[in-house]
Each structure stands twice: as structure tokens, then as C-alpha cells.
Amino acid sequence: MTNPEIAIPSRAPSTEAADDTILPFAVKALDLRGRIVRLGDTVDTILNSHDYPLPVAKLLGEAIVLTVMLGSALKFEGRFILQTQSDGPVRMLVVDFTGPGTVRACARFNAERVAAAIAAGEATPGKLLGHGHLAMTIDQGPDMSRYQGLVPLEGGDLEQAAHEYFTRSEQIPTRVRLAVAEEYRAGDAGGRRRWRAGGIMVQFLPNSLERQRQADIHPGDAPPGTAAHVVPEDEAWVEGRSLIATVDDIELIDPDLSSERLAYRLFHERGVRVFRAAAVQAQCSCSRAGVENMLRSFPQADRDDMVEDGRITVTCEFCSSTYVFQPEEVATNA
Ligand SMILES: [Zn+2]
Questions:
Q1: pLDDT digit string, tens, across residues 230-258
Q2: Of 273, 262, 217, 279, nearest to 28 (Cα)?
Q3: Sheet containing 147-154, strands listed edge to edge, beginning at the edge strand earlier in sequence
Q4: DSSP label at 169?
């Protein structure tokens, strides 16, 4: 294990922008910690392996940024899974992050309802998701207990859901910004669009107990109807979240703006310290052997139902890889 706390000498922010990276940072003067995620090939590979309508792809891109940001903060090499289930046109998003840095993702949606939402000019993230919940699951392996946090989706977007989660479940003041866009480059073959995405998260994590109490604005386990004990927000946190509110989408996805320069742009007056950046890439965990085992676990009657033109074809929902088997290859009593 490398120690992420190793001090880096004071220097000017790197001007070299690197895609598919996660840059942790800290602003000691404000008791803030945060991360900047910048995705190029990773989000492009995932979204291009699907043929989703544009607003669905964009929404899934936001979920990918959020998942990479949260999953990469965990100090173990397990899995972090973000999943929505809701009653909107997009009924499910699944993003699966495996430490230290691979991610895959897919969406399930009702094509007619998505088309209707686009036609009505209502294909916003909140309208596409509708009402339901967002679940975040931490899976540290077969011998470890799974942890799941749930937050309701109530017509808002993923940023709002993340804020709600950290307020309710973790009681850590948190702000998240997510951005996804398509980039056109004249030189690309056929002028193909490329997806880019980025995000920033800051959390207020004061060391002193006095300030931690101030940070706790949750009424706790008080019975319903009890007036919340209102504590004024800490000035440092007000400053931190105000700075994050100034970030434009373009700053999060601009291929020429390095994550270090963005951190510097926001926090240079207070002094910002960056830690070693981590890498992330799109990678699916499916395999022919895995699909074969799954097919063998089905009853024969179910496998018989899957035969088309004398073959069984299975397409991975995450990466769209297709696996073709002869029925006798996966028969259990052959
Ligand atoms: Zn796959």
C-alpha cells in the first residue's frame, strides 16, 4: 500500500490534463476534503457500447462519475455498486465499480416513455428517474458483510440524491457536481462524437469536536414532528460549498483544464493540497466461462427456451459482449 498522505512539496498546479483520473485533495484551512474525477475513454467506451437515447446516456454518465467518485474513496479493493430503481422512463441504472479502478454500467428504460419525454422537452434527469430509490452497496468479498445505504429519489437528480444520502446517512456535509457532454473533434473519423464527463465532490470533515457538533444538522432519532435543532452552518463549510457552486460544467469536462488547475482555481486563496491521482478504466467482469456456468445452473427447460436457430446467444447487459453456445455445450447431463 502506498501512503496517500505522503507530503508533496509546494509547487505550481500541473497544467497537464489527464483523462480517466481521480484526484484527491484537501483544503486544510477549511477542513475540506474532496476529489475531482475526469473521464474520457472510460465514459466514452461504456456509453458507446450501448445505443441509449442521448438523455439516458447522459444520465448514466452522471451516475458513472458519481460512482467512480464514491467508490474510489473506499479504502479497500472490493466493489461499490450504485443502483437506482424508480418509476420514471429510466427504471434502473446500475454502475459497478471494482477497486482499485475499473467500472462498468448499464441502464434499463422504457423506450416509448423516453421518446415521449424527449418530445415533450422533459427529458431532465429528475423527470427520467421519477420516484423510487437509489441504493449504494459496498461489497468487500464473499466472507465480508455487505453494507447498503438507501436514499429516496423524489423527482430530483443524482446530485440531490447524493447530498440527501450524505446528510441523512453519513451526516457529513457534502456537495457534489457532475457533468457529462459530447465532444466533437474535427479530426475524428466521421466526426464521431466522444463522451466526456467529470465531477467534483467536497466534504466538510472538521477535526475538532466542537466544529463536528456544529456540522451535525440532523435531528437524529427524535420522534417525527420534533422540531429540528437548528445549528448555524460552519463558516468554513459555507465558504467551501459556495466555491463548489461556482464550478461550471465546462470546467469539469474541459480536456485542456487539468484537475490540479481546477482545484487551484477554486481554493488557491486557502491553499490546496493534492494527493496522488488514481486511474480508472472501463472494464467488464463478464467472461465466456462465467456465462457458461450461469447457463449450466438453469433448469434444462429454461435453457431449451433460450435456443434460437439452434444456438443459445447471451448478450452482456453491461458491455454488450455476445456469447454464443451450442445447446449441448451447456447441457448439465450431457
Ligand atoms: Zn460484460
A1: 677 899 999 999 999 999 999 999 999 99
A2: 273
A3: 147-154, 131-139, 79-86, 90-98, 102-109, 281-282
A4: I
> What one-character DSSP code corresponds to residue 328?
G
CA separation for the pair 149, 330 (Å, rounded): 37
Q: How far is the CA of 192 from the centre of ligand 1 (A)?
A: 24
Tell me how far the alpha carbon of residue 292 lies from the centroid of ligand 1, in angstroms: 13
SS3 101: coil
CA within 13 Å, CB half, 125? 19
Taking the centre of ligand 1 as the mean of its atom positions, its distance from the CA of residue 205, in whole angstroms, is 38
Query: Rounded distance, CA 287 to CA 135, Å?
Result: 26
Asked if 140 and 71 count as a contact pair (C-beta separation under 8 A), the reply is no
User: Is the predicted pLDDT of residue 278 greater than 90, yes or no?
Assistant: yes
User: What is the Å distance from ligand 1's center to 276 Cα?
Assistant: 30
Ligand 1 geometric centre to CA of 308 (Å): 21
Kindly indicate the confidence band of residue 1, based on its pLDDT and cuts at 50, 70 and 90.
Answer: very low
Dist. CA 43 → ligand 1 center (Å): 15
Query: What is the distance in A from the centroid of ligand 1 to the CA of 104?
Result: 8
pTM: 0.89
Residues 6+ apart with CB under 8 A from 282: 41, 42, 43, 45, 46, 102, 103, 104
CA 321 / ligand 1 centre spacing (Å): 6
Cα 285 to ligand 1 centroid, rounded to whole Å: 6
52 phi and psi angles, rounded to 5 deg: -80, 150
CB 173, CB 166: distance < 8 Å: yes
HSE at residue 268, side-chain half, CA atoms within 13 A, is 8
Decide: 177 and 158 in contact? Cβ < 8 Å.
no
Indicate if the alpha-carbon torsion angle 231, 236, 240, 245 is positive or negative: positive
Q: Which three cell numbers stand for residue 22?
A: 481521480
Q: Give the C-alpha separation, 298 to 308, whole Å.
A: 17
Q: How many whole angstroms from 291 Cα to the centroid of ligand 1?
A: 10
